[in-house]
Amino acid sequence: MADAATDAMAAVSLSDDLEPATSRTSIRSILANGAARAGERVVVGGWVKTGREQGKGSFAFLELNDGSCVANLQVLVDAAVHPLARLTTTGTSVLVEGELKKPPEGTKQCVELRVDRVLEVGEVDSAAYPLPKTKLTLENLRDVVHLRSRTNTIGAVARIRHQLAYATHRFFDENGFLYVHTPIITTSDCEGAGEMFQVTTLFSHAEKVEKELKENPAPSESDIEAASIAVKEKGDVVAQLKVAKASKHEITAAVAQLKVAKEYVSKLDERSKLKPGIPRRDDGTVAYENDFFKRQAFLTVSGQLQVETYACALSSVYTFGPTFRAENSHTSRHLAEFWMVEPEIAFANLQDDMNCAERYVQYLCKWLLEHCREDMEFMAKNYDKTAIERLTLVSSTPFERISYTKAVELLKNVTGKKFEKKVEWGIDLASEHERYLTEVIFKKPVIVYNYPKEIKAFYMRLNDDQMTVAAMDVLVPKVGELVGGSQREERLDVLKARILDAGLPLEPYEWYLDLRRFGTVKHSGFGLGFERMILFATGLENIRDVIPFPRYPGRADL
Amino acid sequence: MADAATDAMAAVSLSDDLEPATSRTSIRSILANGAARAGERVVVGGWVKTGREQGKGSFAFLELNDGSCVANLQVLVDAAVHPLARLTTTGTSVLVEGELKKPPEGTKQCVELRVDRVLEVGEVDSAAYPLPKTKLTLENLRDVVHLRSRTNTIGAVARIRHQLAYATHRFFDENGFLYVHTPIITTSDCEGAGEMFQVTTLFSHAEKVEKELKENPAPSESDIEAASIAVKEKGDVVAQLKVAKASKHEITAAVAQLKVAKEYVSKLDERSKLKPGIPRRDDGTVAYENDFFKRQAFLTVSGQLQVETYACALSSVYTFGPTFRAENSHTSRHLAEFWMVEPEIAFANLQDDMNCAERYVQYLCKWLLEHCREDMEFMAKNYDKTAIERLTLVSSTPFERISYTKAVELLKNVTGKKFEKKVEWGIDLASEHERYLTEVIFKKPVIVYNYPKEIKAFYMRLNDDQMTVAAMDVLVPKVGELVGGSQREERLDVLKARILDAGLPLEPYEWYLDLRRFGTVKHSGFGLGFERMILFATGLENIRDVIPFPRYPGRADL
């Protein structure tokens, strides 16, 4: 084979040369400098948003978008340069070269491209193209998740999402936090509750066994019996030869035969244990010792507990990664896979935690206003008139801070508005209550703190009143809860009692308790649901539209 | 309950007040300004690396580390301030306040902290502490993954890892790339091969069914028969009443009874189908329609195919996230869960791809030299003398570029060195070949391009010679292959043929083919194994030491 290949090599000329690199200019950079770039020669690539022939087919205008910004570049192509009909269909890709020109007075473009060379074209059969010119609803676009990034809305969301992720890393780096990659596959359950996805290789393991058994069925009992008899016979032969003082050569040969027979029996024994299906122990439970990690493993619901191990060593850390819930939720606010930002700070109490959350959220809002203005204007124009106002308000207004007890008191005194869920001290505040606090009562972000311990997780620090824990939620207009955090229980004995109170076993948390056994520190942290932040920023209504590839019950396209 | 809680509320004073925030100063910022800060009052928190009483127990020196840098702050505490024995044990946490002073002449510290208040202490029982003063090996530290971040080495790795992640986001943002979160749970298989982890809720589904059946066994056939007879009887009663022209009231009541009986039968029918174990179809295959996504789902092995959908709309994108391999590898170079950086660029050929990879790798090296100098010096001193040299070389030397055919030629002509695997045109280069090229022949990074199509994936662009594809690998000293990339096949017909040639079905790739059907563009991308990059930078030998929570066969701690 290798020789054949070498011969073939000699026969053809193998590619050693490389095409020269493309020096493409992004539309964003062209439009940012506007008319000042007139006269410059550029190569531009993108997809045609709309194209129209004009001047009786003597030239065409293309609105070209390359995803670098929401705006299109107007491109003018002469019929002499390229057959126009092949360029004007929506969705067509082109790589073109030409000169930037100031367009005629009175047009809205600040600059346009006069093409003199069409370098590449990727055509589109408009009848088959899944994105028709008539606008699809966001809901319909979810069925063409592989093409929807070509729409203005999903493109704008992608740029806003990028800027929010980037601003997150900048904020934490500027403040001395280290980014820690907490595990996706975990054998811990953060909340002691919550539906988790299981990660396994047992199905492929079972498939392999089943395939093997099909090709080569398990031995029957009589197969094994026959093989055992053979062993006995070979053994007898050896014994007889020894008694008969046979030659060394003869005995060695017989012993070798006995060995082969014995090996065959043990192989049959082994194979007789192979069973189709998921391996089970004698008591009927799944034999996870056959799984990849030799135990049950799950997809993480939060990196918090793990990131605490880094905070209790490196002081200020954060994790930003995917988290998972196997809940059968079909709402516009839930995903099976979503991204979370979770900072964790040593030597920090609840007040420090709130300060950090407030500064972080404000930083994000300000960042978007400064770095994503056009996309925000697009969202404001098409989806939520108040989107920019909201960012401005949140970025510039100190957050109100009230205790849970105070919040309940305020909500109980509300007149002229009936909540679906009655407000009583001890309830978990519902979205309607949270939004009323931030949107109606305070008209700005509100941090509610010191929640009843019964409705919060075991790791939150018990307050001196013995009834509340040092938890806090940041509530913002439009989405309600955006951030949830707490000071963590750093006292070993209290933490143990809280784990047991929650009905959980201590053993799986021994490593977590070790952080309190050895050099424990007060520490605090919070989680921000990244998609919630994007909903808050964009004003979009459905979380499935702000993540590139949404996963929810029954759907995991691509 | 709510009332009881309200009463209790009245009885205790609930916490409305918050502790004042801690204004802690990081050791990094203190040491960065050194002696210039003498005279300043600060609060510092950290963990004691070593502590020793001096002056016959009248004071103690603590070497304090807070993870912000590899260096410790020297802290001096008087016996009058705090019982010294409680502070000096390795691993003890302290939050202390005091004044920064210039230490006596001749000591190596540039500044030290004279403590006048000890605010918090987290003690350690040194006999029980899993990190003894005598250094544990990196291998032993893997058994205390929750505490190992307190060691100098793992702390330095965490800071280097952070800087590499941060530099990655900076590089791509500066170059107009958008960060796209590709899915973790996927129903596509990127390579058409590779062992994948399955994601499922079928085990918890089976557990629920089994529990339910235990509490309430499935109906027997005679139960169902009896219930069916009851339906017949109730039906007869209705019929008879109708014949007898009974009152509307009587008939309605009988119909209602019949309805109840029918519902009972259908409930029994339903329950009789409940079977313990994983649900199976009639043909014995697993009934994935009962799984969360109503089909088989897996953990991603690469975000490339999905991120291409964004590149073919937004031009320059990248993904940076966890990827998974369920391979039974116990080597020092493989993990079941690891992070990958995967840029994807539209309107870009293989040359553009190489340019991007070279600039990115150089940017990372330069970034570390500028932002992680002390940690790099620590690694050079303790693990790999050449680590800093290597970064300097790679950041400042243009990468050699040679075709695969040329590389094979060079390796075949090597004398005085025998490779374990014989070099022939057509083989997949092994690590020994890759390292020889970069370490011995060129003594700098090498990009090998245009590989035989047989050893590369279907999506790589077929060259005109019909024998090679436009693939490229970046090889660097110490680790060999650091980056693998290619120009993608943008021609619909060629791509289809390549999929079929690879023995794969077309149907699962229809969405991927759509990118070529509608406005196709030349595009290219690559993947950088993030942990490989850290191994390359630090000179460490085992990949399990450069990820916070390593996952490999049989191990998924925490």
TrEMBL record, chains A, B:
Pfam families: tRNA-synt_2, tRNA_anti-codon
Residue ranges of every copy of the Aminoacyl-transfer RNA synthetases class-II family profile domain listed in the record: 317-548
Domain WHEP-TRS: 223-279
EC numbers: 6.1.1.22
GO biological process, one term: asparaginyl-tRNA aminoacylation
Molecular functions (GO terms): asparagine-tRNA ligase activity; ATP binding; nucleic acid binding
Cellular component GO terms held in the UniProt record: mitochondrion
Annotated keywords: Aminoacyl-tRNA synthetase, ATP-binding, Ligase, Nucleotide-binding, Protein biosynthesis
Entry keyword Hydrolase: no
Reaction(s) catalysed by this chain's protein: tRNA(Asn) + L-asparagine + ATP = L-asparaginyl-tRNA(Asn) + AMP + diphosphate + H(+)
InterPro entries per UniProt: Aa-tRNA-synt_II (IPR004364), aa-tRNA-synth_II (IPR006195), Asn-tRNA-ligase (IPR004522), NA-bd_OB_tRNA (IPR004365), WHEP-TRS_dom (IPR000738)
Family: Belongs to the class-II aminoacyl-tRNA synthetase family.
Name under which the protein is recorded: asparagine--tRNA ligase
Source organism (scientific name): Zizania palustris (Northern wild rice)
Lineage: Eukaryota, Viridiplantae, Streptophyta, Embryophyta, Tracheophyta
